[in-house]
Amino acid sequence: MTGPLVDSRIVVDRGAFRLDIDLRIDPGEVVALLGPNGAGKTTALRALAGLVPLTDGHIRLRDRELDDARARRWVPAEHRPIGVVFQDYLLFPHLTALENVAFGPRSHGTGRKEAHTVAAAWLDRVGLGDHARRKPRQLSGGQAQRVALARALAVEPELLLLDEPLAALDARTRLDTRAELHRHLAAHPGATLLVTHDPLDALVLADRLVILEGGRVVQEGDAAEITAQPRTDYVARLVGLNLYRGRAVGGRVDIAGDLTLMTTDSVDGEAFVAFPPVAVAVHIERPTGSPRNTWPATIAAIQRHGDNLRLQLDGPIAAAADITPAAAAQLDLTLGRHVWAAVKATETRAYPADAAGWPAG
Amino acid sequence: MTTTDAAGARKPRFRRRVGRTPVVLVLPAILALAFLVLPLAGLLIRAPWATLPQRLTDPQVLTALRLSLETSTLATILCLVLGVPLAWLLARVEFPGRRLVRALVTVPLVLPPVVGGLALLLVFGRRGLLGEWLDQAFGLTFAFTTKGVVLAEAFVAMPFLVIAVEGALRGADTRFEEAAATLGAGRWTTFRRVTLPLVAPGIAAGAVLCWARALGEFGATITFAGNFPGRTQTMPLAVYLTLEQDLDGAIVLSLILLVVSVVILAGLRDRWITAP
Lengths: 361, 276
What we know:
The structure holds two protein chains of two kinds.
Chain A: E1 6-14, E2 17-25, E3 30-34, H1 41-49, E4 56-61, E5 64-68, E6 73-74, E7 82-85, H2 97-107, H3 112-125, H4 141-153, E8 159-163, H5 171-187, E9 191-196, H6 199-205, E10 208-213, E11 216-221, H7 223-228, H8 233-239, E12 242-249, E13 252-255, E14 259-262, E15 268-275, E16 280-283, E17 292-305, E18 308-314, E19 319-323, H9 325-331, E20 338-344, E21 349-352
Parallel strand pairs in A: 3-9, 3-10, 7-8, 8-9
Antiparallel strand pairs in A: 1-2, 1-4, 4-5, 5-6, 10-11, 12-13, 12-15, 13-14, 15-21, 16-20, 17-18, 17-20, 18-19
Chain B: H1 2-19, H2 23-46, H3 52-56, H4 59-92, H5 98-105, H6 107-110, H7 113-124, H8 131-138, H9 146-171, H10 175-182, H11 187-215, H12 219-224, H13 235-243, H14 247-273
Helix pairs in contact in B: 2-14, 4-9, 4-11, 7-9, 9-11, 10-11, 11-14, 13-14
């Protein structure tokens, strides 16, 4: 087959909030829908699953129209070839792990015995064959997550939806479960949509990231593109970069606060400039010489950041700077202190803001 | 030493807090308890213990007891079959006039049972709105029959079940039903395999309340079904009728009802009634 497995335009109105996104997923592809809380990620997932109706738009899976707001066509959730792993798993508390996994096949008309055979095989695949007779309350968080995954996959869905699949787990379990989830998603022949607010989940598990803010897609691409060229403050923070927008003329970019940043990239017109916090040097006196961008700043916050200290700098532009504890000791850093920030032109990256297809702003 | 001192200093503070419990509240509370318990104690004190074994095996007593247990159980089953779907409708389906329907369901709770019995007579009696048709078409007669007893008890007890089950359904997490739908289960399968098991404790609690109410039903039963030993004379009716000639007999019958109620409540309370 050619073209995407999932082809959708999802528009859902919820009070004053409007979700309006185009979403396409290829067969075998894992797409992460990444965004802050309230961006509409879960609403998009629920619309695909058939749990909330579309206000406008359509959802097409393979050649089947599941939803068409204008034509008033709507396939109910139970008739969609879509599996869902919910955020808190929603394992049926009165059924054993085996019965939970067998629930899907049985609802699709498979006999009890055969459904149990299928379910047992799935539990084996997620490494829980010996937990088949446990009730959900007797399972740990990581085990419950794997049962939920087995339950969703047992109906062999064409589209698998995962809603914050790792959010309910503690850090240690999350690490193991993430690795295992990656293995299962790679083996899943259908398409997968992963909803998350954790950039690490998205970067590790997904082939492509779709970033959602305020109900709209603000950026889309693979991990390398997104981390190299963020287009909103949210994405920049996710990937740990300072990001500014301005007007560029041959590598000089005029940004807010009458500041001009020199870059080594030659760009013209509306452009973004990005640089990592470790590229920012902090000085007591105004540094001279070398092709540096300098500006006066005040220290607004000091936090630990791994082995370094992260300074939040106010001034003509807000920026984050990472400095070593040794450098910090020499600088005598206090909140509100006036300093000079400097970034080498070679450490900045500039790229056009109005790349085709991206909304301005 | 310092730790023991600290602990020792903390103790009297607790005691003082207990000692401060206001008399204004404690006194009426004790009176209320006495008011509830004393009459039951009276039953026990005045019971004719000497002749008890003989009275218990009195065929008339056993007949009334069996009729009571049978009719209240049948009434509970009727309430379950009709009341659970009604509770589901009220809890899960938005329809115009839902608030009105919910209010109507609770009417038998506040209606004097005698009035309920009279109303049943007007509808299901031999000349009643439906009764006449039921009688002619199916040969079904309710008034002054055992079926009538079941009907009267169900009428009075149904609200208890509907309210309990609706509460349980509203409290249940509907996202489990969504999860079932994404696994391919239709509404009926979801109701049967997910919703019902999840609210089972609520249904059990409602059924127990419903059964207890049916067991004690008097006013609607005597009005609608009359007082025929072996057919419509349930225990409460027997107590009332026996009281006119034989106080000891009435006490024995009351004791039986008391024991049955307490045993059922004690047996199920911890497991179900407090569970949801």
